[in-house]
Description:
- By secondary structure, the protein is α+β, with helices and mostly antiparallel strands.
- It is built from 1 helix and 17 strands.
- The chain has a 4-stranded antiparallel beta sheet, with no helix packed on it. Strands 14-1-17 form a 3-stranded mixed beta sheet, with no helix packed on it. Strands 3-7-10 form a 3-stranded mixed beta sheet, with no helix packed on it.
- The longest helix has 46 residues, at 2-47.
- The protein is globular, with a radius of gyration of 43 Å.
- The N and C termini lie far apart (144 Å).
Amino acid sequence: MIRLSLLxxxxxxxxALLLRTKIVMTTTTLLAGSILFQxxxxxxxxxxxxxxxxxxxxITPEAQPVVVTGSLKGRAPINKAKSARPAKExxxxxxxxxxxxxxxxAVWIGSGFPALDPAHAPIKRIDQSxxxxxxxxxxxxxxxxxxFPNKDSMYHSVxxxxxxxxxxxxxxxxxxxPDAVLFDKPGLVQLFCEVHEHMRASLxxxxxxxxxxxxxxxxxxxxxxxxxxxxxxxxxxxxKSFEQVIEIAAGKTLEVEWSNxxxxxxx
Length: 267
């Protein structure tokens, strides 16, 4: 019994010593982990500090001057001459020749400006509708592509023998749209339809960004003009046009009354 009691006491003391050793080791481990965590936290704070600032010269580009533009507003004469070739009757119950668009004039300012980039220029349209070209007069800047869709039930064609642009699209059906024609040379392009001889249109190609077709009463307005002195061209027909010298002031609108210009042949 005495030996058993001594054995139990010895085992209890060993177990207690082992337990104290584990507690000490655990405490030491936790303390070491805490110290390591604090060390890494301090290192992270150091790494997150603002990077060293290098002193470099900063060049600020000069602001581009803002150009204040002007406008031209007024009234131009209208050519009241009737079409030389009236529409004739075509066979077929679905064919109805509608009236042509009201006659208008064209006005443009200046010349000698660069052509548009055809890859980025807006594509313009002259429809064949009601057996007429619509619009019957259009002004575009050099470098502009134009398409000629057929909106009628019969075949149409589009061609021109003009010096500024000679081309022939041949005949094409309703809702067909031939490839765009690029107008890259200034001048007058007279358009015809080989199928319907009464169909006529005028396309004026100008080397300036400032142009407009008038209203049927001759009124017009051109805005966004860079200030300066220019020659303004007033176009009524292939045989009638006028030139006027004008001066555009910044932030102002020049109003003109040209409706009573004396008609003289175009140069």
